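Field guide to reading this record: the first block holds the primary sequence, the second block holds the structure written as discrete tokens, and the final block holds curator observations. Each block starts with its own label. This record concerns Ribose transport system permease protein, catalogued under organism Aurantimonas manganoxydans.

BLOCK 1 — SEQUENCE
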Amino acid sequence: MTLALFITILMTVAAAATPLLIAALGELVVEKSGVLNLGVEGMMLIGAVTGFAVASVTGVPAVGAVAAMGAGALAASIFAVLTLSLMANQVATGLALTIFGTGVSALLGAPYVGITTTPLGPVFPDALASDPIWRILFGHSPLVYVGLLLTLGVWWFLKHSRPGLILRAVGESDSAAHSIGYPVLKIRYLAVLFGGAMAGLGGCYYSLVLTPMWAERLTAGRGWIAIALVVFASWRPGRVLAGAYLFGAVITLELQAKAAGLNFFAPELLASLPYLATVLVLAIISAGRRGAGTAAPACLGQPFRASA
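BLOCK 2 — STRUCTURE
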């Protein structure tokens, strides 16, 4: 393997892992608060189409990324109102949000199909970003660095900050947190909005960096992988980072096999590799530990009813 090919593979792994990492970190914070939102795929699609549309109109990809975060948070607010205020079933509402996001993104994105826009470029000088060696560190999209910093920030927030401790307490025992005066619903609302913003940001990575264009169902089910990553990582940010890059490597394997013309595998099999890996990882976790969900927050998915 030549050095150039090795560097290209590493760059491709980082590119494939970043949207999974960002969306999974957002979902991790949501689940740490005791809320299960299965609508990540729908929020990613809404973020992807919004980011692309705004970037196309304004000509500024960074503005599109910010708009994608806002759109993802707005979609998450619908889920929050239904599940936290109206106490609808979280699983059913999350699935409905994915269906809603898929349909809305297709409708809003219809005028933009086949159109390209200016992608988010490197943040470092071209002399570093284009150098054959240094581009491993300096040639990535800004969102790659955002994902790494976000991992560190979420880890610090949950482990070393007082608000993070309160959020974890709400996820472990909402009634106990409520009894000592913590606003459980407010905390969960904020967590859900943050998760939506991160899903939107992860979604716009596809339309503003990888393509950069819009196509219906652009995220191709990656939101489900992001949800599985949270379980795979046992709700730990560092493991989410490792898992995202592991799945990024699996996705890269598919792309490299196609590029090399390895026809002894059916194309459909190669395309299914990330999802087969998701099922395999979850099966190994379930078989290897009694009750793989023991690391999950105790109140995950349970509605909160404030007592007098």
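BLOCK 3 — OBSERVATIONS
Residues 10-295 form a domain with the ABC transporter involved in vitamin B12 uptake, BtuC fold (CATH 1.10.3470).
The two ends are 67 Å apart (CA to CA).
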